[in-house]
Amino acid sequence: MDASAAEIHPAQTGPVPARPYGADASVNPGPDRAGDRYARELERHLDWLDSFTSTALGVLSAASGIYTYLGVRTLLDDPGLWTTFAALAYAIAVSVGIFVFWSYLLRLLPAVRSAASRVGLMLTMALGSVAIIAMSSWLNAAALAGGAAVETHMATTVQHYQTSLERAHANAVAGQSLSRDVARVRQSFQDLSEQEAGGTLSGFSGRGAVFRVLTQKSAELQALEEQLVLTLAPVEQTFAQGNTILSRMRGTSVAPGPLSDRTVSFSEDAVELAGLITQLRQLNPAPLVGRAAQDLADAVVLPELDGSTAATRAGQSSTIESVLSLVAQRAQTLTTAAAEVMALPEPDDALYKPMSAADAVIAYAGNFIPAWAGAISIDLLPAVLVFIIMVVQAAIRSGRGEGHSDDRMTVGELRAALAASEILRQHEGAGPSRTDRGYPPPPDDLRGGV
Known about the structure:
The chain crosses the membrane at residues 48-70, 82-106, 118-139, 371-392. The chain is mainly alpha-helical and 450 residues long. The chain is rod-shaped, with a radius of gyration of 47 Å. The chain has helices at residues 31-75, 81-108, 115-176, 178-197, 209-230, 232-254, 259-283, 286-298, 310-342, 357-363, 369-380, 382-400, 411-428.
């Protein structure tokens, strides 16, 4: 055994005349001796592990500081010298804080024995761990997965824009389908006007007042139908443009190259696509049909009755009243159809909000659990070492017993003590030497300092 590492406990170095030097001390050891040997073995292991524990803790702290620096850089847009210095200072402060915090706990928490002290230090460790996560771990996660989180944000935004575009297009198509209802009502008025021309409605053939009312409403519906047809091409063209931009945005979100450049391009496409979605909402003809149906019933220009006799004019007046009642019914039908289209869910307001890597990794934390686990583990891994040392120290105390003294003496310290004892005896004449008192002389390896 190396003399500098050997330990001799005072409780075991007293004079034992019945056992001379060199005797085997391990013969029939008692329970206390076995526990003490077990404790000394664990202490030797701890001494060896302690030789590089500080170095390992420094490496972990430095690694956390590096990733913290990268995370801070994602939050600071200015690439100047002072920005670099500020990020570096913050990273160094984090590294030093982590190293000092865990160094304190590695030394103090395993050493305390009372339950109150342990609970207090554990609460302190929990509070410090939360502080480390707040000041370092989320920045480490941003450095590890920040770029991927921003790409995930862009991909999610593309899906949101696609949903809004498709819903706006579906609403516009539903509004255009009202053209069939308008055509049906227009056709009914045309058929009635033809019947009136033959004298079927009022009983008087010709193109009189009733015929003019019917053709008036038919012409209004014809104009509305033409307007609905004219919106078909712009709706499909706008929808095609939106799909083209969506395809370009998908490519931008996964394309190689600097993330900052891709974010700028993505933002420009997002603004253009938002304008197209708004345009689709405006091209929806359902509100136009609703207003036209209301005007169909309210705005009626009654012609002058042109019957030659009073009976003819009375018949024309009665027929016109019936026609107006029919117009009101048809207008109500169109109004109801238009209201059903306008009641469809509107597309959500599509708005792209650029995110920094640090913000994105928090917003999409559920998608990057491994990165978060690695970022937190690199900061909180020393907590495992603290618990390991606590368990080993408890085992050492259990092996030695509660009443055992932890005072230890190395071979060098024993030599110095023996030498001091002999010097005191020579100067004071206090009594016979060890040999005169019947003790065997110390072995040769212990007499170097006497």
